[in-house]
Amino acid sequence: MPSAAKPASAPRSRAKPLTRGRVAASAPQRAKLRTKNEAEAAGTAKPASPAAAPPVELPEPFAGWFANRGWTPRAHQLALLEAARDRRSSLLIAPTGAGKTLAGFLPSLIDLAAKGGRRGNRAPGLHTLYISPLKALAEDVARNLTQPIAEMSLPIRTETRTGDTSIARKARQRRAPPHILMTTPEQLALLLSHPDSDALFAGLDTVILDEIHALAATKRGDLLSLDLARLRAINPDLRTVGLSATVARPTELRAFLVGQKSPQSHIELADLIHVGGGAEPHIEILELDETVPTVGHTSLYAIEEIYKAIEAHRLSLLFVNTRRQAELLFQDLWRNNEKSLPIGLHHGSLDAEQRRRVEAAMASGALRAVVATSTLDLGIDWGDVDLVIHVGAPKGASRFAQRIGRANHRFDEASKAVLVPSNRFEVLECRAAVEAAKAGAQDVTFTRPGALDVLAQHILGVACTGPFNANDLYAEVISASPYAGLSRATFDRVLGFVADGGYALKNYERFAKLKPTPDGLWRLTHPRFAQAYRMNAGTIVAEPLIKVRLIGKRSASRSTLMGGRVMGEVDEYFIEQLRPGEAFVLAGEVLRFEGMGENEAYVTRATARSPIIPAYNSGKFPLSTHLAERVRVMLADENAWSRLPTSVEDWLRLQQQRSAIPGRDELLIETFQRRNLHYLVTYPFEGRLAHQTLGMLLTRRLDRIGASPLGFVANDYGMALWTLGDLSALVADGKLSLEELFDQDMLGDDLDAWLAESNLMKRTFRHVALISGLVERRHPGREKSGRQIAVSTNLIYDVLRRHDPHHVLLEATWSDAATGLLDIARLGDFLRQIEGRIQHQPLDRVSPLSVPILLEIGREAVAGFAREELLREAAGLYASEQE
Amino acid sequence: MLELKPERLAFDDYQDQEISICGKLFRADMSGALYWPAENALIVADLHLEKGSSYARRGQLLPPYDTRETLNKLAAAIDRYDAATVIALGDSLHDIDAATRIGIEDLEILQIMQEDREWIWVTGNHDPHITERLGGHVVGDIVVEGITLRHEPHAGHMTHEIAGHLHPAAKISMHGYTLRRPCFVGNGRRLVLPAFGSYAGGLNILAEPFAPLFGLEGMQAWMLGQEGLYPVASRLLRED
Q1: Residue B96 and residue B128: Cα distance in Å, rounded?
Q2: pLDDT per residue over A568-608, tens digit each?
Q3: Is there a contact between B62 and A775 (Cβ–Cβ < 8 Å)?
Q4: Could you tell me the fold of the domain covering B23-236?
Q5: What phi and psi values does residue B169 have, to the nearest 5 degrees?
Q6: Which of A323, A450, A534, A836 could form a disulfide with A483 if both were Cys (CB 3.0 to 4.6 A apart)?
Q7: In Å, how far is B111's CA from the nearest CA of chain A?
Q8: What digits encode the pLDDT tens for the residues A544-574?
Q9: Cβ of residue B218 closer than 8 Å to a chain A Cβ
């Protein structure tokens, strides 16, 4: 479509020198749903008033179709049409239920209908790509789109392409593509790796990226950004539409959607179309007279109230933070299920088939409640949910907002949510979450640079399409916003890694995968590398998972264990801890571990009274910075305590008497003796990851000064460590300075030394090695599971670190660990803040506030510490047995 | 947890441990090498030299430093005991072409180690032939003082034998902690050495191939740590 004169009612942003793009906000504008950042961005443009609708209208048959259903096009739907007409990319932020998906597709449907009609036959070629983070969502959206297409008899063909699509169908899709293809980032990368991808995508008009907030700032998002850059290189006129239900990070998402210019004088941004929230959510915190437990992550104390709430609603979604909590809650509910209400369970460890059954039952209204983890977070419309119960604290404002949004997909009705804190700290955190939700606050995550292992994978993918020029590819890569800051030198190192390993001291030139041609292009040396690439593409590296198979009691007693039904999958780490005969809970059943088969765990139905509950590693979220700050404020404000449940208020008063309440800008450190050990407990409220890192570093330092630390434990609120040395005495005698102990220089050498040996780095390296293609998950002709990677990445890590410590893959590993696993930036900020503000309380006994943290001891093994000690202890046991 | 500090234990030097096989005394080293004081010989198994380049040939460009790493570790062990004889118990090379891929510098390190020292390559399934380029004597197996040194352990209840091939590893669980390390495994009558190569993996000693060799009674494992070699009680052992 030719670009028309700019309408006066939708002014282009000019005020902000460093950004380009515009903000068209549709009615009703609600400041309450904005972050500070975004309010700034929005302030650069005059919002369109509801009366002055943009001068685009729905053409027929669309206008008639809307009218027949009694709909009028919403302002944001028209705003997207206008953006499409002007060939502008846009980010649409709208709550669930606002017709977001249809708004995204309307311009494509109208364009395709017009083209098809004009030529009297169907428009040829692929016109629109729809990318979703979940294959289930792609399929759901495809189903929903068939209705308008069928009812208006539009000459448009839509198809999905996911990991489940048959090979025959995938092949046909490349020969005769549909007009609209619904797919995932991984499938797009694969499509782009074929030599004929230029032809396939040459006519591509629009890319719609759904739930884009779930992808950006992850490795999947990095890969997607590079693929978008590829698509823009094939067709510079490409238009993108991002859809997001949460308003966090709008600027980052807008930059993600468009190509960045080089040199970067300003950030290019897509237009922002922002729909205000529907009705204000109705949120309650379930606070009983019952004593809130001091510790734990279960809500057994409130189970009756939860059950009553389920009874009073059509369909309740019960969210928890971990799979372990999901299993626990599910069991507790069924134990109390006097009326035998149909209650289901949905989490990532369950068998896919089982999850699908639960989803179908939700959609058909056959269930009254579903206990779920983050697997149900994203916008799939599975049923008429009218209540969200969040059990345990939600850990982040954005996550909470998203989950509340699951209740009620009807835009104008209020979402209804109940929060159930499961311990005393969580009472404070739930309060903070409710305040945040009322204020419409969102957590702000900061942009991280694009991952280098993903870039390595992408470069090989590009090479699979044919020879490439390194200068051109570099220019293309830095047009993707996550890679905008990538230096040419780093790019060349990654290219060197892909070509021949890029090793500093020795090279593999004769085994190189890429070699330069005489005319300066990089070319794949053998087609089998393309085949290997296609088998290994993607950035989702699963932690090694073990299938859990139910077997009959009889076959369990025989020496060969015969397989029956698969119950689901659990982390390998978990299974490793089990001994035959021990019980655990999965899929709502108590299972007895019988033994390992080849890559499978065999279980029988157990009768044990008190099951061991799986401590799944996945699904633990650290407390967001934003909520942590609110909790800190709440603690410091004594006047607000009276509004807390009595048991919580008493707890705080007791803490005040015996020790002190952590001040808003102070760090409280308590030291005391218990039995023959000496404890140090501190309350930074910076989240579990940052506290773990702090614990590791403090124990190293205390070991050096001879305080003999033995271990530490961390949760979201604080950290406790214990020593043989008397810490209170060491401080009193001036032998230990807490200021020096907590000095930020611990993030230097101590951190490096600890990380070099830590298991965490090895695990991170494994991911980097897999994503970058250093080791292959699957090799042509030989399928490999996570357990069978031929050379252990731990061994490779050790060798590489010793001989080539500056290798680009080690750099990538470090940067992953620093951001995702250690929260080093957050710990650094914190240590800076508390400099000179340490408040030390030497106590003669355990403080009330420290009890929940101390009770975590024994629940979680201390990672990466004292491996050698363990071996020595084993040897000691051996020695004593020999005597 | 872990309150047993080394100073409280009966012995604090873990660098090597004494092992007896049919009355002969050996010292098992934390590197995975076995020293025979009476013969002044150092025995190692499964070096798998050039395993990295073997993968590179097929498109997985693993860091090419594994041969150097293995040779350096071997040189340190030879120096520690000042052994006059070195016996490599087979699978010294990862594949039959590996010798042609060893770099010049690595070859020099090997030659320096072989100066003034008797060097015996026992062949293995990965390296049925060993070229003259690598120096030393090449044998199928060798009997020293009544003890047979061979690559693959003989089936069944055998005595007087030291072998490699199986890459033994032990896994223990304590305090909810799991640790898996290469190990020596024996029963006083025969012994299997851990793989010495830096890219060589490990097979759990509770897995299939081990039981017929040792029986379950009397099987003893010594695990390799960062700072020492540690005998472990067999009741601590876990399956994978």
Answers
A1: 7
A2: 777 665 665 566 666 666 766 667 777 766 567 788 877 64
A3: yes
A4: Purple Acid Phosphatase; chain A, domain 2 (3.60.21)
A5: -140, 150
A6: A450
A7: 20
A8: 567 788 877 655 444 444 557 777 777 665 6
A9: no
Tell whether A786 lies on the interface with B, counting CB pairs under 8 A.
no
SS3 letters for A287-324?
CCCCCCCCCCCCCHHHHHHHHHHHHCCCCEEEECCCHH
Lowest mean pLDDT among A716-725, B55-64, B88-97: A716-725
The CATH T-level fold of domain A545-605 is Ribosomal Protein L25; Chain P (2.40.240)
Report the candidate in A438, A452, A553, A506 with the shortest Cα–Cα distance to residue A774.
A452
Structure tokens at A243: 């859809």
Grade residue A279 by pLDDT with cuts at 50, 70 and 90: low
Measuring CA to CA, which residue among A821, A824, A799 is closest to residue A810? Answer: A799
Q: Take residue B33 and report the two structure tokens written for it.
A: 């090498």
The CATH number given to A19-275 is 3.40.50.300
Return the amino acid letter for B96. I
Q: Which residues of A9-35 are buried (b: 16+ CB within 10 A; e: fewer)?
A: ebbebeebeebbbbbbbbbebeeebbb
Cross-chain Cβ contact A775/B14 below 8 Å: no
Label residue A280 left, alpha or beta by phi (over 0 means left) and psi (-120 to 50 means alpha): beta
Beta-carbon contacts of A157 under 8 Å, excluding residues fewer than 6 positions away, are: A122, A178, A179, A180
Interface of B with A in 19-58 (CB under 8 A): 51-53, 55-58
3-state secondary structure A651-664: HHHHHHHHCCCCCC
| CATH class name, domain A282-439 | alpha beta
pLDDT value at A704 more than 90: no
Q: Does A150 touch chain B (CB under 8 A)?
A: no
**Is the ipTM above a cut-off of 0.90?**
no
Beta bridge partners of A522: A468, A516
How far the first Cα of chain A sits from its last, in Å, is 90
Comparing CA positions, the residue from A207, A214, A211 lying closest to residue A231 is: A207
Q: Is A774 on the interface with B (CB under 8 A)?
A: yes
Structure tokens at A527: 């087609």
The helix (H) or strand (E) run that includes residue B142 is strand B142-144
A322: exposed, middle or buried (Cβ count in 10 Å: 0-12, 13-18, 19+): buried
Place of tokens 């790019």: A491
**A710, A722 in Cβ contact below 8 A?**
yes
Cβ contact A252:A387 at 8 Å: no
Q: What is the pLDDT of residue A864?
A: 37
pTM value surpassing 0.80: no
- Contact (CB, 8 A) for B233 and B199: no
Provide the number of CB pairs (under 8 Å) joining chain A to chain B.
159
First-residue to last-residue Cα distance in chain B: 24
Domain segments of chain A as ranges: 19-275, 282-439, 461-542, 545-605, 660-883
Q: What phi, psi does A389 have (nearest 5°)?
A: -110, 120
Domains A19-275 and A282-439 alike in fold: yes
Residue A243: phi and psi, rounded to 5, are -120, 130
Option in B53, B63, B225 nearest A804 (CB): B63
Residue of B nearest to A595 (CA): B239
Average pLDDT across chain A, whole number: 78
The closest CB to that of B175, out of A507, A861, A876, belongs to A861
Write the DSSP symbol of residue A821.
I
Distance between CA atoms of residues A878 and A755, nearest Å? 31
Q: SS3 sequence, A445-492?
A: CCCCCCCHHHHHHHHHHHHHHCCECHHHHHHHHCCCHHHCCCCHHHHH
